[in-house]
Amino acid sequence: MGTNTDERLEHAVATLSTLIDRIGACGMRQSVMFLEMAKLQLKLDLNGVTDEEFSAFCDALASGTLPETQPHPGQPRARRDGDLRGQGRAWQGTNGIAVRRVGRRRVRQ
Fold first, then answer.
1. Cα gap 85→90, rounded to integer Å
2. How many angstroms separate the most distant Cα atoms in the chain?
3. Domain map of the chain by residue range?
């Protein structure tokens, strides 16, 4: 999807969130559920998630077999090398010389 389409979908998701809040305040639970499903579908489309991927994700959640990919907050991360800690560098290139990292740029489509 193009950038313009993505922006419109993100705006639609934000609009649905506002509607969900307003309708929820009126006590219309079924309408809120319907709008939440529409919001979910827009998010799936926006992020390019297929029906098969989403179904597999739901099955993994239901069965508890979803692999843990990130540490829980408060758990220490694994360190790369103890020698780098004293130098204040997160990573070194060949011959012990730190490689200068330049900011990442997004590719326009």
1. 7
2. 66
3. 3-63
